[in-house]
Design a protein that fits this description.
By secondary structure, the chain is α+β, with helices and mostly antiparallel strands. The chain folds into three domains: 4-98, Arc Repressor Mutant, subunit A, CATH 1.10.10; 100-176, no CATH class; 179-258, no CATH class. The chain is 45% helix and 15% strand. It has helices spanning 4-18, 33-39, 43-56, 74-92, 179-194, 199-214, 219-230, 235-245, 251-258; strands at residues 20-21, 28-31, 60-65, 68-72, 93-94, 97-98, 103-106, 108-110, 115-117, 138-139, 150-154. The strands form four sheets. It has a four-stranded antiparallel sheet. A three-stranded antiparallel sheet has the order 9-8-10, with no helix packed on it. Helix 5 runs antiparallel to helix 6 (199-214), helix 6 (199-214) crosses helix 7 and helix 7 (219-230) runs parallel beside helix 9. It is elongated, with a radius of gyration of 23 Å.
């Protein structure tokens, strides 16, 4: 079993990195959702068991419950951390180590690419049949080969909170692009045709989208083509194109095209 002090230090480190001091009234604003996930407890159940009691004592002011964001006093902050650690140790850790198997969990993602949870297997209470952001259906398997979408990677006796999980672009089992990637590529190509370019240039740039996404030998050439295009379009079109193309290309390529 991991040392309780070590676990507490990790939780506190995350909360400290996220906390935003308020206006001097003794409260600190922080997003508590990742620590609630750590405990394996749904936020509504957590509200019923803990937050209402802390509110009665004036230790916490809840600003939103899904996701759970609140303003806490120093005492409320410490009580919250201790309760989360205690619950995690009671529910998820045995003398032989973590009950969670080492390896990839399963991610649940909507058809638009919004991540619902990266721990759908370990914490099924966080799953949702439809996306709360866009309303589209969610999936946990590749539509092409039915392989599970890899989520958070669990390491035995290591607790990870506040990690940034991004929806994968392609299935690692069959290589097929996920629906959100396909729709993003389609949107980028559609926008190019809407710019009113001549047919040859538009066709070349549409092919260039595939080259940018592939990040292969033809990518540097495509980068130069798009950089030249950006000098000839309006600021509004530039901003729209940055948002559309930025969803399907890597951050390094995005920087080369839009941050020069």
């Amino acid at each position: 079993m991991r040392d309780v002090v070590e676990i507490r230090m990790q939780v506190v480190k995350y909360l400290d990195s996220q906390a935003t001091p308020d206006d001097g009234d003794g409260f600190t604003f922080v997003d508590l959702t990742p620590v609630i996930r750590l405990s394996g407890m749904d936020s509504l159940e957590f509200d019923a068991l803990h937050i209402s009691k802390m509110e009665e004592k004036g230790l916490i002011e809840v600003e939103s419950r899904r996701p759970c964001r609140a303003r806490l006093t120093d005492l409320g902050y410490n009580l919250f951390v201790d309760e989360r650690i205690e619950h995690h140790l009671r529910e998820n850790v045995s003398l032989g180590g973590s009950k969670l198997e080492e390896g990839y969990d399963v991610a649940e993602i909507c058809m638009n690419g919004h991540v619902i949870t990266d721990c759908a297997k370990s914490y099924p209470q966080f799953r949702k049949p439809y996306c709360p952001e866009c309303g589209l259906k969610t999936i946990i398997k590749c539509p092409h080969c039915a392989s599970a979408i890899p989520g958070h990677y669990h390491i035995r006796d290591v607790i990870s909170i506040g990690d940034n999980y991004a929806a994968p672009a392609y299935c690692q089992s069959c290589g097929t692009a996920f629906p959100w990637m396909l729709s993003g590529i389609s949107a980028a190509k559609e926008f190019i045709y809407a710019l009113g370019l001549d047919d040859n240039e538009a066709s070349s740039l549409v092919q260039g989208v595939d080259d940018l996404v592939a990040n292969g030998p033809r990518t540097p050439l495509a980068i130069e083509h798009f950089k030249k295009l950006l000098t000839r379009i309006s600021k509004t079109s530039y901003n729209i194109f940055e948002g559309v193309l930025g969803r399907v290309i890597s951050e390094s390529i995005n920087q080369q095209i839009f941050r020069q």
